[in-house]
Amino acid sequence: MLNKKQYFVREHIGMFKLSGVYDILDPETQEQLGVAKEEISGGLHFLRFLINKQLLPTTVNVYEGTESRPDKLQFSIKKGIMLFRSRVEVVGRDGQILGSFKSKVFSLGGAFRVFDDMGEEIALIKGDWKGWNFKFLFGDEELGSVTKKWTGIGKELFTSADNYIITLNGDINEAQAILLLAAGLAVDIVYKER
Q1: pTM for the whole structure
Q2: Domain 6-192 top-level CATH class
Q3: Domain map of the chain by residue range?
Q4: What are residue 166's DSSP bridge partners?
């Protein structure tokens, strides 16, 4: 699953859903590579009725396989309580922290910094003025992108489901691929969902 250069992320549709499920597909073959599932406790489900879910902690586990048959945990995206700026950690299947994201305080289209396990900044994720398309930047080099895919006016207006293409450029190792894939998922799951 982690050796691809492009991923299609399709959010499951739900009118009043309190946790998200996302299929991760190969955009060329439509083969399902994995699934990202937001897994939270029952108490947090209840709080989501009262408080904006962006302020509450969440964990998104990314598995190889499908929703009905998740196979092997690949990595997790964990966000604590958000006050002013959110900090998100990416944790490997062995429990080791692979990196983190920190949102920027002021940004027109949304932005956050990506750090590796040593705290070194490896990318800046920067959105366009609409906040729908994001670029993974390291200096002037574009490491990848997240592009929103429109699915129809009815679905876009009446549900919160989004579809994205995550593209990784150049030669990157598995740890960087995990961080960039996690960043692409975090754009929607952690930073954009309301």
Answers
A1: 0.83
A2: mainly beta
A3: 6-192
A4: 7, 146
